[in-house]
What we know:
By secondary structure, chain B is α/β, with parallel strands linked by helices. Chain B has helices spanning about 5-20, 45-50, 60-70, 90-95, 100-105, 135-140, 150-165, 210-225, 245-255, 270-280, 305, 310-320, and strands at about 1-5, 25-30, 55, 75-80, 115-120, 145, 170-175, 180-185, 195-200, 205-210, 230-235, 235-240, 255-265, 290-295. Chain B has a 7-stranded mixed sheet with strand order 3-2-4-5-7-6-12, with helices on both faces. In chain B, strands 9-11-10-13-14 form a 5-stranded mixed sheet, sandwiched between helices. Chain C contains 11 helices and 7 strands. Chain C has helices at about 10, 35-55, 70-80, 95-100, 105-110, 145-160, 175-190, 235-250, 280-290, 290-300, 305-330, and strands spanning about 85-90, 165-170, 195-200, 200-205, 205, 230, 255-260. The interface of B and C includes residues 51 and 71 of B.
Amino acid sequence: xxxxxxxxxxGLTMTEGKIVEWKKGVGDRVEKGETVxxxxxxxxxxxxxxxxxxxxxxxxxxxxxxxAVGTEVGLLDQAPGGSARPQxxxxxxxxxxxxxxxxxxxxxxxxxxxxxxxxxxxxKIRATxxxxxxxxxxxxxxxxxxxxxxxxxxxKLDVESFLAARATHAQAVPASPAAAAxxxxxxxxxxxxxxxxxxxxxxxxxxxxxxxxxxxxQAYMVVSVDAxxxxxxxxxxxxxxxxQTGVRPTLTxxxxxxxxxxxxxxxxxxxxxxxxxxxxxxxxxxxxxxxLDDGLVVPVIADVGTKKLSAIAxxxxxxxxxxxxxxxxxxRMKGSTFTISSLGMFGVEEFSAIINQPESAILAIGAIIxxxxxxxxxxxxxxxxxxxxxxxxxxxxxxxxxxxxxTLKDVVEEPLLALA
Amino acid sequence: MKxxxxxxxxxxxxxxxMARDETVFIIGEDVGAPGGAFGGTRGLLQAFGERRVRDxxxxxxxxxxxxxxxxxxxxRPVVEIMFADFLPVCMDQIVNQIAKTRFMFxxxxxxPLVIRAPGGAGLNAGPQHSQSLEAWFxxxxxxxxxxxxTPADAKGLLKSAIRDDDPVLFLExxxxxxxxxxxxxxxxxxxxxxxxxxxxxxDVTIVTASRMVYQTLEAAETLAGQGTDAEVIDLxxxxxxxxxxxxxxVEKTSRLVIAHEAxxxxxxGAEIAAMISEEMIDVLDAPIAxxxxxxxxxxxxxxxxxxxxxxxxxxxxxxxxTY
Amino acid sequence: MNKxxxxxxxxxxxAAPKPSNTxxxxxxxxxxxFLELHYSMLRVRRxxxxxxxxxxxxxxxxxxxxxxxxxxxxxxxxxxxxxADTIFTTHRGHGHTLAKGMELKPFMAEIYGRANGAxxxxxxxMHVASSEAGVGGANGIVGAGLPISLGxxxxxxxxxxxxxxxxxxxxxxxxxxxxxxxxxLAALWNLPLIFVxxxxxxxxxxxxxxxxxxxxxxxxxxxxxxxGVTVDGDDVxxxxxxxxxxxxxxxxxxxPTLLECKTYRWFGHYAGDPQKYRPANDxxxxxxxxxxxxxxxxxxxxxxxxxxxxxxxxxxxRAEIDEAIAHAEAAPxxxxxxxxxxxxx
Lengths: 420, 323, 345
């Protein structure tokens, strides 16, 4: 008797996973608790452990392929040598919905297959005629695209992103050596170098960034602020917070708090464009763009406006540490309503960021640089920081953005105003 | 090239074609000594005499019918109807007679004539002197309908219209008469039935004509500032319609907005939208949007509110882009 | 065929006969195209009789309007015109068209809607035209031919030709704005145009006296500064007389004339019209006036023809019509989509 190994669902919104590595080969003995395969989703990778012992009878989904949740990816036999099909009579077990722990993910292994008819929901998929045509021409079922796309409605971009991702997979797992050779030849005709296939994270970054530039009317606004008081405030708060939490508050922590205060006075910054209208959000959930070695994640500090600086610092520290370890649960990367991104630590004076959809704005924070400025008719040197707001002009008019930026400048320059 | 006003370009075309072809004559109200209500026929009486420049009584049906009878006998009349709003006065002659002459008589008689008429609002001329009625005529088989936006097109298209063997309704825009633009020094023709891509772009196609070309180009600049690259197609001719130009552009951009000054309902925008839906819906990545006037006669004192403008076009494009 | 030689207008302008109220008038000069007039009238009548017959047999699509009883108007007017002259006619235009010289075969084939019809089968009875014969088209819109005829007359003057144009219209059309616009402009510009009002007393289903205060439409000419003449439209010689004068005036560059020809409509507005609107004995009275029978009586009485001669003409016409009908019925229908070729050049 054999049982199916399926792609588990981890987290509320996971729809698909990409198999990164099979830790076991066909015919290998698998002990309960051993990692059978590794998959990636939403920028995080998971080890899938065997829920029971047996032999890996077959690998259905190869490394590099992305499949929908519940798809059967391999078969586990109780005896060596077989590759029999799983028993159809096996009752389906519920897939964990809310629990995002690795243990929960492991439970999915060897659970009976829950086969989702891929085409079954096609009629409910909203897609433009062009998206449908491209899908059809490429033999795609739109439900596959829908599952992989963040869009409410599939457009050309969604289908093309999906195809691009698929093409990358196909390249990584060529149908034949000849095809592989021709692909490599084709690639090398354009440029010498090495081709690195896309990670899930890279695909998502690419899709989101591109979609954002297409979907939003992005406009920019820069302001120089005197960061003297901000730096001083941090210095003064640091000892007590570090003593209390073991974490040193960063300028980003302070800014997260200050930005939340400014947003509180300009709630238009905390909105979301939807097909039905503009959604005004109550709480400010602050996304903090965080660079990783091979990508980028945006962990979220929920309801930042109501949190003390010590709580923000602690939470930020934990989030970033787990993100760097590749262990950030998807739920901690969701729901942000505004994002800040800082490249000050690289000495970048100013830059503009792309809005983290579906938010309406993002703040790019530059380095604090000693700069000659004119004060009361005299040139003095001040620590100046440049803040660049990217905002969605569909929702936020220039004057509204300017008012927000002005408040932001006031509060950064006099952090005490956060209490006002 | 030389800077020339729109009305002057029309006047030049008439001078040149009358000098070139003895069978061309001008007929209309006040086209002689007064030189036309807007100056389109200025100087023609002096240059060509009363035989070829005929001032008429206020009898639009007789004027247009006369043109048809003369055309059936080999002349090439150019009629001036003072306002496009007066075309309905002689609608039978245009729709039942002129448009059908070639057809009804199996080609034994043809109607190579031109009817010039200024349409459009913008001069506070009120409900009976400001309409954009082109869709009516574009709906009539047998007529050709052109509506130039620029002086260069006005001249080149009018010359082509006079030489055309079919009846051409030449719809000028009275609010463009005083505008100027560069036209070639040497003789040239602009073909009927060919659109002009006024601005190339990759994100959205905006199809327009006549005065709305300018509003559309203004909108395109605004959109460019927002990162949307619009392609602007000036139809120039409604019949025959340059479907190829529209289709080619929409194929490229996957998005379509049609902007016209006429009332939006049942207008050319509806026709073009339907055409795309029927023949190439699967290139569309967003719904088609139309910009046109509200379903109301043109108000005398509130043209600003009434007339579609660049902001309306920008909004329509934004809607399409953010679908 | 027994078609007599046509006399040219130049030849026929000599020795105009006295207006005759009846064909039994006294001394008549030698043949002044009389047999030709008879032939023309009878041809129109026989053609339309056959059209009524084939229409009732369901062989003709659509509907037709016949002018039986009014043949003297068509014949008298067109006898004064040359092929270089042009006529514009009405929905009841078979007679005018044939009298103007249109060949019967393309005429019939058009009414049958065949590929070889004069208008490729696009038009049918109501819009028959012949550029060859100078028929600028029958017209389905009452009064619409009037402005067009202005242009034809204008073109003659513009080109310095001495050709003229005649436009037929009914009493009903004289109440259209186009009539008034055209009368004014033609008079103003001295156009070589003859306005032929074929007054049969009926505007479709309504009698003249119920829609007009005046009895004589010719009186309206005065208001536009042109002569207005009323003739007995059932007397071909009177019609011809009036038309000759008008044509001479036009050719001489003296401008237009309104020629009102009073006549009777024997049939309904359209073939099959039950004519419930007509007074009880109106039709009976109407048919007592037969322009052809009267003219035959005159020809025989004045020794210009005998019965046998006229019967031979009739037989010849019937044969010609049979041939044209057979030709039309044998002709192929217009090819599918053929009509699209005639919309634009």
